[in-house]
Amino acid sequence: MSPLESVVFWVAAVAAVISGIGVITARTAIFSALSLIVTLAQLAILYLLLNAQFIAAAQVLIYAGAVMVLFLFVIALLGVQDYPLMGRQLPFQRPLTVIFSGLLLVSVIFFVAQSPHAITGFHQNFTGGTVQDFGSQLFTVFVFPFEVTTLLLLVGMIGAVALGRRSGGEP
Fold it and tell me: Which residues contact 30 (CB under 8 A, 6 or more apart)?
């Protein structure tokens, strides 16, 4: 890896982590969605460093472009920024959240370090250059991460609609 690639990697990685933290700490849903767009753009840069131009382009066009613009429209149209909090916080909710989040982070790092290929099932370098090779890898080797991403996007959309319906006074 050249020195320029190392600098680009570290800048993109730090920006992705900071904007990822911004996703979960933003006070409004709009700022959270905008932070997620920055995170997705940084991930596209990291994909370019891995010589995966097609995945980087798909990341920008599909996720940062179409999906996140759709999320922003849903948030803006439903008026989620005016939504009051659903209830009172439990007495130890914040410390328990930090503890459980830390445990989740440590466990993910531990299990990925034990077997880095167990999550994706990918054991060799992907050298196919065609879209057909990419598609066959996506729907055979990487089918689990692909389906989990779909599920997460669906849950996010349902959550945005549910929050919007409650703030509008509908049951």
Answer: 72, 75, 76, 81
Q: How far apart are CA 26 and CA 15, in angstroms?
A: 16
- pLDDT by residue (tens digit) across 18-35? 999 999 998 888 888 889
Contact 32, 22 (CB under 8 A): yes
Q: What is the pTM of this model?
A: 0.54
Buried b (16+ CB within 10 A) or exposed e, 54-84: ebbebbbeebbeebbeebbebbeebebeeee
Phi-psi region of 141 (alpha: psi -120 to 50; beta: other; left: phi over 0): alpha
pLDDT 10s digits, 102-124: 998 888 787 767 765 555 555 55
